[in-house]
Each structure stands twice: as structure tokens, then as C-alpha cells.
């Protein structure tokens, strides 16, 4: 994801970048450890909710998604 952010910013774009994780952007468990740096400060954690993904229960969202949402838009 860092290469993606760098490539977008290299074009001069200042827009919001939504960067997701694996499993169709359903796994944000490692977001804090691998969060890309964005010189524009305009980065959001992307999360895709589907009932067939690994993290589809309320308890998983509370334990995995809530900490990411508390520190990243």
C-alpha cells in the first residue's frame, strides 16, 4: 500500500486515499502495524463488510475494527 500511496501522491493528487487490507478489505487487524505514510495526511482505512467474510460478527468488528476506527478515519 505504501507504493500505491507514493504513486498517487507523485501525480500531485491531494484527494483522500482509502487503503484496504487483505480479504476484500475485510481484515484490518494489522492496519496500525502496516499503515502507509501519507505526506498529504489524507489517508483512510478502507473496510468492506460482507456477511461471508472472516470478520462479519459484531464481536469481531468490536475487537478488530473499533481500534482502527479510533485512530484512522
TrEMBL record:
Domain Glycoside hydrolase family, first and last residues per copy: 2-49
Keywords attached to this Swiss-Prot or TrEMBL record, sorted alphabetically, are:
Glycosidase, Hydrolase
Q: Which domain of life is it from?
A: Bacteria
Q: Does rRNA-binding count among this protein's keywords?
A: no
Q: What family does this belong to?
A: Belongs to the glycosyl hydrolase 5 (cellulase A) family.
What is the species of this protein?
A: Streptomyces cyanogenus
Q: Which InterPro entries match?
A: GH (IPR017853), Glyco_hydro_5 (IPR001547)
Q: Which SUPFAM superfamilies match?
A: (Trans)glycosidases
> Keyword Hydrolase, does the record have it?
yes
**Protein name as catalogued:** Glycoside hydrolase family 5 domain-containing protein
Amino acid at each position: 500500500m505504501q507504493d500505491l500511496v507514493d504513486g498517487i501522491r507523485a501525480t500531485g493528487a491531494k484527494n483522500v486515499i482509502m487503503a484496504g487490507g487483505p480479504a476484500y478489505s475485510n481484515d484490518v487487524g494489522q492496519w496500525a502495524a502496516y499503515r502507509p505514510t501519507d505526506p498529504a495526511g489524507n489517508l483512510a482505512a478502507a473496510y468492506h463488510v460482507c456477511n461471508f467474510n472472516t470478520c462479519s460478527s459484531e464481536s469481531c468488528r468490536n475487537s478488530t475494527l473499533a481500534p482502527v476506527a479510533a485512530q484512522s478515519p
